[in-house]
Amino acid sequence: MITTQRAFEAAMLDFKEKLKGQSFYDQILQTTSIEQVYQDIEKLQDKQAKSGRLRHLSKIEPFLARLREYSSVVETFVQAKPDILALIWGPIKLLLLWADVLKQSFDALLNALEEIGNILPDFCELAEMFADNNRLQELLVLYFRDILQFYLISTKFFSMRRLRVVFEMFWPSHRDRIQVVVKHMASHRDLIRKEVRMEEIRRADELRNRELKHFVQTEENNIAQEYASYREHISPKGYDGDLYRFSEAVCDGTGKWLFRDASFQNWLDGKEKANRILWLRGIPGAGKTLLASSVIKHTQQLNNTHTVFAFLTYLDRGISALSVLHSLIFQLTSNSLFLKTMLCQSDLQYLGNDFNVAAAPFQALIHSAGAVRLIVDGLDEIDATQRSRLLKELVRLSGECEECYILLTSRPESDIARDLNGKTINIQVDKNNAGSIQVFINKTMEKWFKDRAFVPSVRDQLQSWAAPLAARAKGMFLYAKVIFRIIYYINDVEDIQNQLEHLPTSLEDAYGRILEQINASAEPQRKKLARLILGWVGCAPSPMTLKEIEQALIVDREHPSKQPRVQAEIDPIHVCGPIVDVVDGYVQFVHFTVREYVE
């Protein structure tokens, strides 16, 4: 008896662990008798009758009758705890309520219950046959596991979000899983008729588990292969590398103001229902991209929340609204078998070349995913036509998908404001980040003092001269960054003083000073080299690697067929100053505003 009770408890624990959540289990435990089930059925029939969609609930009477017999035998021979009886009756109520959202889903559940009711044995007769035999208790455990397995498959399906939308897509595979359990229930009749050993009864339980596991594994493998095929065909752009680079560049202590902002908190918590789009707008160089990276890293840690994102840049000439949508789709589905299955069963014939075809499954996926935080940075850096197409779709999505909250960053361009059509909560970044810029300046100066080993008296002077820098930056991290790049390796303290006491009036003025320094260089070769590098960086249709730049610089225009040979490495930052950078081996302007200034 003790062994049998432990077997029942083990089955209960296994069911509880595999169930979606504790809340479902708690709801199940509230129903402990068939009388409660009949009361719930009566309420459901009244509800259906009032709405003119009464269904044939009498079809499940054989199932309920067999379970009544089963629970009676279990109570008699096993001394069952209330939780065991609750697991027999409780799931029925939840399944009927969940399935009632759609006529087809309700009928599918009734048909499954009817089929199982017709193959379950007469448990009272079974009790008489094996009254003095331990085989009865083994068989009761076996059927208990079968019933719980059916409930587990069914609860996972009928509790799906937006069952109305996904029923036709997912029911066939779940119906096939149920059939595996039904087949094994039917096969138990042979165990009842024959004189079998207990080992054979246990083997039947193991066989069902193996077959179900094989069925599920095969199904998952097929989906994985199909999904991988679509992904390879579309080859969506990934932004994880950008996220790593930007999040690593965030200066500790900066950006905290945003997470204290009430509008942002409402967006983050999903409390803002009227306008679910948050627009972080601001002047160039205000740190919008780094703020976006901080938001992404934060939302990735939220429970039950999907985060998808894109960092758009002028450097990617091939970017389009469709390519962004592709990236978001495959980000959203990458870690969810359910969403992968949903995508693979969508109409994807023209996914690679039709924006509307891509938009349809994306909306369906967001609807079914639950809470989604969608972040797109740098909208102002891509083609105006493409960003308009993308923006209109995102605005439409925000209206259709109640749990999708969108964050956008860009300059306050008039066409972007027009497409957003006032359906956003706006935060002006450069009006709120003065404190963060001061933190950035302080930490940069600490590093500067350490790297250059200035004596204490000079440090005090430098801090005094740099005091106006935060105010002069006018909300631009980039301005402060460029100034530090200009002065970082100057050896003459008087030259540093001159730079800090005569700060550029704007970012463009800072760029102009750097170009003036290049043109005024006493080294003709360096001036020529700097102009060539800036020319290649500004005119190349796609970013060039440092090696490509080095090759391009030694091409002989008078003898183009001559094979160039690089004799020495070049440091573009040393040659051109702080308006260029080398990122992941590619030479590029420190900000897209440099390109605009040069052009």
Automatic annotation (TrEMBL):
Superkingdom of the organism of origin: Eukaryota
UniProt organism field: Fusarium oxysporum f. sp. raphani
Domain NACHT: start-end pairs: 276-414
Keywords linked to the UniProt accession: Repeat
Gene: HET-E1-9
Protein name: Vegetative incompatibility protein HET-E-1
UniProt keyword annotation of Membrane present: no
InterPro entries registered for this protein in UniProt: DUF7708, GPIID_WHD, NACHT_NTPase, NPHP3-like_N
